[in-house]
Amino acid sequence: MDLELSASELAFQAEARAWLAEHVPAEPLPSLDTAEGFALHREWEATLAEARWSVVSWPSAYSGREASLVEWVVFEEEYYRAGAPLRVSQNGIFLLAPIIFEHGTQEQQDRFLPTMATGEKVWAQCWSEPEAGSDLASLRSTARRDDGRGGWVLNGQKIWCSRAALAHWGFGLFRSDPEAQKHAGLTYFLFPLDADGVTVRPIAQLDGEAGFAEVFFDDVFVPDADVLGAPGDGWRVAMSTAGNERGLSLRSPGRFTAAADRLLALYDERPDPRLADRVVDAWLRAEAYRLYTWGTVTRLRDGGDVGAAGSVNKVWWSELDVALHETALELLGPDAELDSRWLDGYTFALSGPIYAGTNEIQRNIIAERILGLPREPKGAQR
Amino acid sequence: MRFEPTSDQRDFAASLDALLAGADPVGAARAWADGDHAAGVRLWQRLAEQGLTQLATEASPVEVVIALEALGRHAVPGPWVESAAYIPLALGREVDGIATVAVPPHVPYALDADVADDVYVGSTPASAVGARLTSVDPARRLFEVTGTGEADPAAFDLAVLATAAQLLGAGERVLADSVTYVKQRKQFGREIGSYQAIKHKLADVRIALDFARPLAYGAALVSTGSTGEATGSAGERARAVSAAKVACGDAAYLAARTGLQVHGAIGYTREFDLSLWLTKIRALVTAWGTPGFHRDRILTSLREAR
């Protein structure tokens, strides 16, 4: 057992650290959910892409560096340690791209991946519907076959679509077979958010910014070329993104170890022995997450998969993120309510236990699939 | 980078588990609590033959963690943290027979001094063994001792880590037994383990244990082992073992509280075997440094490193 990086991994780390030290903007960018911040974050993505740091784990043909899982974790650690901007492209590069690589055609890969890597096209995820949240498979938006035009016609409504207010393209599931039950008969579609019949209504989040939106589909035509995977196979295709979102991809340990370091710095500025234990626990939970991730990386490299352990992971990082920021706010004292990076981080953290499958759903998964407890009797099916 | 036990280490854990599963450690622990050491000493000898008392001097702290986790899972009685972790490192040699130690102020009493061949204070032999005290864990027979020996910091840290590993094993056992129980026990016509109120509590225990384990392994990697060479500095080592102790203690204690709750009244009896682990976890949470001591040590070390 060891936690040592190899010579080439250390060289990769040094190269990333040096580049980030030179290029990370000195001042934090405005929120990526404002028009100005969105534009600046896309510019940053282009800067990253130019130096081949935007999608390090991708193949070199798509401007990646073929980074191993270890190198990816190392890069993320350096990225957040350097205080680099949030990734406006994260829904695309972390959630959609793995699926395009796995299920997409060559033509789709060539058409979508290059502009995703540079931030030229930003992607929004369109999963939930007003009546389909945790019970996602009960979604009602439809896709009707149009043989004449060689494609599908989408109708319905998606909600809580992250980045949709400003993004260019969306991805989501639609019911293509009205006779099929629940998980069957769903198809995975890619669609431009400025297509005829698409209406995007931004929704202000808790912090007042339009981080997500409602998207209405009124006879929106999508050609066969923009179907991802086989028609009717959308649930299976989509579940590979759900695993990515809960597991490693979206929440690298670097985010939390960097935040824990900042919390310690804040404690040094404003020491308060009454909060000492909570500061320690925030550091300890981030450290546990860092080490746990190395275990996951080792198992994945040995051919294992994350499986239901992704749910264990998701509950941990989301609750750690809230607790860490709550502690910071308490250290700030009466100034905690004022606009600050900590307050932004806190508001963002509050969404963690809700999105990507609520923590209650995750605990059900842990109990049923890991502990082997009996399933709860389901309510009446539609 | 390989942050998983090797196949040899996994085999070692499996063989210990198999040995203990067939050795009635619960019977030995109950007799031990009554002052009848015969079965416990026989078990001690079998485990010593497996090399448990040599791990600190011949193997690495990872093996110490693996062994103590197995002992915790099976509620094996005896001064194992003392004989397999603290004393070999403090004296620089394997213990002969059964040895125990008090390391004031964090370890004021010597565990099982009545059955030990050698009793130490700090790193030197005790001058006298005094009265027995009653622990919440009946299998932990504690004794007052007198002596002037000083603590060995590296040995203390390995003992802290060994205690953390024992807590991890005990917590895993309570979770496993609780899962078995809630799948059998029916109320209102269905297994109580099908109710979300129960599921979510047990899921939280799974999460806590899963994130405590890497801290124990991580601490083992920076701890002082047989070569006397630690990969980390003394401050790093202290911080890592304290983190392991806090996390394993918190996770095991959550397992104990949750396990007691989902078992209901039967779990609240001395007769039911769950009591062995509930009381052991309670005792070990404050043994070899309280959570408060360890949290303070972590903060001090982090602030010094800044």
What topology emerges from the helices and strands here?
The complex is a heterodimer of chains A (382) and B (306).
Chain A: H1 7-23, H2 35-50, H3 69-81, H4 90-103, H5 106-118, E1 123-126, E2 142-146, E3 151-162, E4 169-175, E5 186-192, E6 198-203, E7 212-223, E8 227-228, H6 234-246, H7 253-269, H8 276-301, H9 309-332, H10 341-350, H11 359-370
Chain B: H1 7-21, H2 25-33, H3 38-49, H4 55-58, H5 61-73, H6 80-91, E1 99-102, E2 110-111, E3 118-121, E4 124-125, E5 128-134, E6 141-146, H7 153-184, E7 186-187, E8 190-191, H8 196-221, H9 234-263, H10 274-286, H11 291-305
Parallel strand pairs in B: 1-3
Antiparallel strand pairs in B: 2-6, 3-4, 5-6, 7-8
Helix pairs in contact in B: 1-5, 2-3, 5-7, 5-8, 6-7, 7-8, 7-9, 7-10, 8-9, 9-10, 9-11
Distinct helical segment count of chain A: 11
| Count of beta strands of chain A | 8
Q: State the CATH architecture of the domain at 153-305 in chain B.
A: Up-down Bundle
Strand order of the largest sheet of chain A: 1-4-5-8
Order of helices and strands of chain A: HHHHHEEEEEEEEHHHHHH
Distance between the termini of chain B: 26 Å
The whole-number mean of residue pLDDT values of chain A reads 93
Helical amount among residues of chain A, as a percent range?
40-55%
CATH class of the domain at 153-305 in chain B: Mainly Alpha
Quick one: biggest sheet of chain A? 4 strands, mixed
Order of helices and strands of chain B: HHHHHHEEEEEEHEEHHHH
Under CATH, the homologous superfamily of the domain at 153-305 in chain B reads Butyryl-CoA Dehydrogenase, subunit A, domain 3
User: What average pLDDT do the residues of chain B reach?
Assistant: 96
Percent of sequence in beta strands of chain B = 5-15%
Query: What about the largest sheet of chain B?
Result: 3 strands, mixed
**Spatial extent as radius of gyration of chain A:** 21 Å
Low-confidence stretches of chain A: none
